[in-house]
Amino acid sequence: METEQTTEERKAHNEALFREANESVRAVQADLGLPAGRPMPFICECDDARCKTIVRLTQAEYEAIRAHARRFLVAPGHDGDENLAAKYGDYDVVEKSGIAGEIAEATNPRKERG
Ligand SMILES: [Zn+2]
User: Which of 10, 25, 50, 54 has the most CB atoms around its CB within 10 Å?
Assistant: First the structure.
């Protein structure tokens, strides 16, 4: 049981790392003044640390996902159906629950500061 939870935690932290990376990607895109309506490359935020899949979505689509602390964007099918919140053409949106959800909230880069 404990091993299982540790695995869950490790996976959740992998997802959090990819989310951090995508936040940097978004910041660079904003700095460059790239058109918001054009799909931009983001990294798949699934729990596989080796996954380097690129998914393309617009800034608005990305923001809609980031508005939820427990939601992640992944390439289609990369996180199974268990956590699936929404399915689009080029990407899936998953919502974490349990320990993974708690870690997702604790590591949320958009968390209110002070
Ligand atoms: Zn992936």
Answer: 25
Q: Give distance in angstroms: CA of 41 to centre of ligand 1.
A: 13
- What's the CA gap between 13 and 34, in Å, rounded? 30
Query: 1 CA distance to ligand 1 centroid (A)?
Result: 25
Spacing, Cα 35 to ligand 1 middle (Å): 26
The pLDDT tens digits of the residues spanning 16-39 come to: 999 999 999 999 888 888 887 889
CA of 36 to the centre of ligand 1 (A): 24
pTM for this one? Answer: 0.88
CB 58 within 8 A of CB 43: no
